[in-house]
């Protein structure tokens, strides 16, 4: 990966105190009194760890607008030099599922959903928390998602779904944007910025 290659990392910060027990929701939370919105941050980061841009959006906690919000965030940056989009998980903001195939097609860029924990899958949690049409929509998006594959990076294992590129390229991208540790730098920066923005907003 060339040092000047750029990726857009997207992560969110939701209010609440308890992690959702899912395989992909890296920063989702349960809360008895959630804010209606979660903060999304997009961080443009070069492979040599230089941060090259930030943008923010919101999506509804428990909603179904995360895919459109991420597309809007990307468009707001107007950065044709971004080669890859790395999303933290596939179910941010309390199961607001991201359709990474639709994102890859809309943005004409490979999209990688990266999660950081082993799990048996998301369907039991979805079935417990939703019913009717809301459940059906989420299950359809989840079941259509590309398979989740382990990638070894710096002695750690992350789990990657890839749209718009094959598994070998996805692994190369994750490793190329993870100079140390097990979290790709674009996602790490985006997550820190999203948390800071939510705290600044007083949530």
UniProtKB/TrEMBL annotation:
What InterPro entries does the record point to? Endo_dU
Region Disordered: what ranges? 1-36
Q: What is this protein called?
A: UPF0215 protein C498_16488
Family membership noted in the UniProt record: Belongs to the UPF0215 family.
Domain of life where this protein originates: Archaea
- One Pfam family this chain carries? Endo_dU
């Amino acid at each position: 990966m060339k040092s000047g290659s750029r990726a857009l990392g997207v992560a969110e910060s939701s209010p609440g105190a308890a992690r959702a027990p899912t395989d992909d929701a890296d920063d989702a939370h349960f809360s008895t009194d959630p804010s209606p919105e979660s903060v999304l941050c997009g961080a443009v980061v070069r492979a040599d760890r230089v941060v090259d841009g930030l943008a923010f959006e919101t999506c509804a906690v428990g909603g179904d607008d995360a895919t459109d919000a991420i597309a809007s965030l990307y468009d707001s940056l107007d950065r044709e030099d971004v080669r890859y989009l790395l999303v933290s998980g596939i179910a941010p903001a309390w199961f607001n599922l991201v359709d990474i195939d639709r994102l890859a097609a809309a943005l004409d860029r490979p999209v990688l959903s990266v999660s950081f924990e082993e799990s048996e899958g998301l369907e039991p949690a979805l079935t417990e928390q939703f019913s009717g049409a809301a459940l059906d929509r989420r299950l359809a998006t989840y079941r259509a998602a590309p398979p989740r594959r382990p990638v070894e990076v710096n002695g750690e294992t992350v789990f990657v779904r890839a749209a718009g590129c094959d598994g070998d390229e996805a692994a190369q991208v994750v490793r190329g944007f993870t100079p140390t540790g097990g979290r790709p730098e674009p996602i790490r920066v985006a997550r820190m910025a999203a948390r800071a923005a939510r705290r600044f907003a007083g949530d």
